[in-house]
Amino acid sequence: MARFPALDPAWVGTAAPGAPRGPTGGTSSRPLDPMLGVWMPPVLLLVAWAVGWIGAQSWLLPEHVLWALVPTTLLLGLRAVMETVLRRTGQDSTALRALYSVHVALVAIGLLLNPLTCIYAFVGYLDSARFLDGARARAVVVATALLCAVGQVGGIRVVRAETGLFVGLAVVNLLLAAGMLFLAAERERVLAQREHALIEVGRVNAENAELHDELIAGARRAGADEERTRLSREIHDTVAQGLIGVIRQLEAVGPDIDAESRHRVTVAEEAARDCLLEARRAVEALGPHQLHDTDVVDALSGLVARWTRTHRVVATFDADEATRDGPHGDVLVRIAQEALANVARHAGATTVTVTLAGDEHESLLRISDDGAGFEADHAPRGHGLANMADRARRAGGSLRARPGVHRDGERAAMSAQAPVRAVVVDDHPVVRDGLVAMLGADTGIEVVGTAADGAEALAVIAAAAPDVVLMDLRMPGTNGIEAIRALRARDPRAPRILVLTTYDTDRDIRGALEAGADGYLLKDTPGDEVTRAVHDLVAGRAVLAPAALAALTGSGGTRVQLSAREAEVLRLVADGCTNRAVASRLGIGEATVKTHLMHVYEKLGVGDRASAVRTAWELGLV
């Protein structure tokens, strides 16, 4: 934000009308040192009275200077009240306008009794930007210039005797004040332009870096696509064409052969046709990668549509509960290709359903049909289960095949799921290895990295890009809370952070949640609850130990204090309303809804809507 030099109080804190507002409602220009505007005026007020008392020994009336102690004392108390009101209500509130009017009146009375009060009156230039805004601030600048001129000529009696001198000094003061206001406004404008230029430069640099990465990735894809196309062409031109030739030759065998020979020819022809089907599937798999120019949802939709046209089987695709940027999309497409080829060869199905679900952290692909069932453990060679399981396993996922007749008539179902990627951060090797082993036992979780302290964790997380981080708090060097703050500075949402620590003090719990942790559990939590907590976090649900809930609600059962409007917004969000729907129902703007939600997140110690609703349910707020 803009900061002005402290060479002249009239410059400090001034800004152009209509300049951007700061968090307290004032302009974005603020004093170099916030304490300057608080402590300098009382000091100047006391100095003004002390100098006046010295002047009373020669040219001022001692009894007037003594009486000046009354407005001086009142001004000291009034300033304390104005500072308190400013902190509570912000700049230019109704209360501040009234208090500052009293302030100006007391300054005028002080000048009547002690002309040297003008030493203090000079701070009106500074106060105009701190307490007021717009036309009222400019009016204070004018009043300050006139009051200073009264003191500069020697008091109200001299003003009556030397009116011309007073007018001249007042004009000079006003011109100086106007000039400084203009320079301050220009400085604010220049700084705003510079800030905008820096933001634009940062945006352009980010775009250039993104384009650079895209060019490199495109070059790599182009090379891979070229090789895939070459292999696809060779299979088509050699293997596939050769098989077609064999089939045609077998078809040309005349009927004048014995039954055994005819049987052998038929078997050979069927085998050749099966091999041709496999060759065609390989050509399709080696063709241009489906995800290069589209997302996994569109790629699977296109694959199902082509398969339906080719095999004349009714196939539906449902991705209503899926995200378009889910993980391991290429693996899911390949598994779908093999599974559908398996259905075409072996199932004899009339209906196939392909379902994709999940979020940006986890994907679940399910393919079911109403054809002939099979026993997964005894499936004959050629069903492709081994290839599909291997693809899922290499991506860290799992494959499950279910045979048999089900309630909706389906006879076989297959699902593939990508795992949650996790990083474990703990300074105790035994604890760290135990957590890795425990998480590794869950097929839906893949541990992609470990770290012994916060600094190492930041590097591991940047390289591994996990979905969830299990973070200890008390570690040597960079502790857990510092590491959480650094991660949230990078990205307020990802990865999800689960604090897993030995301590359950309010200080640790509140420190972790305020730093940006999404969940808080103790290390003695049963292993199945920890793994469930990992899945809950990636699904957007809150995970809090009882001690963490108690820290949120406060000791003695004190509830989280939400304003009436915050409670209304939270209840509507819990009912499933979007920000736009909440705004429409309450008759407020979407930006206001977002502001209320940010306040709710802060009070509940959560980072998103789902966690806020979950925590509100647990606390009985909705």
The description of the largest β-sheet is: 6 strands, parallel
Mean pLDDT: 76
The overall strand count is 11
Q: What do we call the CATH topology of the largest domain?
A: Rossmann fold
> How many structural domains in the coordinates?
3
Quaternary status of these chains? single chain
Q: Trace the largest sheet across and list its strands.
A: 7-6-8-9-10-11
- Return the structural class: alpha/beta
Q: CATH superfamily of the largest domain, called what?
A: Response regulator
Helical amount: 55-70%
Shape: elongated
Supply the number of helical segments: 23
What CATH architecture label of the largest domain applies? Answer: 3-Layer(aba) Sandwich
The amount of beta strand, in percent, is: 5-15%
User: Which runs of at least 5 residues are low in confidence (pLDDT < 50)?
Assistant: 1-32, 378-382, 404-412
**What Rg is obtained from the alpha carbons, in whole angstroms?**
38 Å
The N- to C-terminal Cα distance equals 40 Å
CATH class of the largest domain: Alpha Beta
Key structural traits:
622 residues, Rossmann fold, disordered N terminus, Heat Shock Protein 90, alpha/beta
Structure description:
This protein is of the alpha/beta class and 622 residues long. It has three domains: 34-197, no CATH class; 293-417, 2-Layer Sandwich (Heat Shock Protein 90), CATH 3.30.565; 423-619, 3-Layer(aba) Sandwich (Rossmann fold), CATH 3.40.50.2300. It contains 23 helices and eleven strands. The protein has helices spanning 34-55, 62-67, 69-89, 94-113, 118-121, 124-131, 134-153, 156-161, 163-251, 259-286, 296-311, 329-347, 385-394, 429-440, 454-464, 480-490, 506-515, 527-538, 546-553, 564-574, 579-586, 590-604, 609-619; strands spanning 314-318, 351-358, 363-369, 398-403, 412-417, 420-425, 445-451, 468-471, 496-501, 519-522, 543-544. The strands form two sheets. A six-stranded parallel beta sheet has the order 7-6-8-9-10-11, with helices on both faces. A five-stranded mixed beta sheet has the order 1-2-3-5-4, covered by helices on one side. β10 (519-522), α18 and β11 (543-544) form a beta-alpha-beta unit. The radius of gyration is 38 Å and the shape is elongated. The two termini are 40 Å apart.
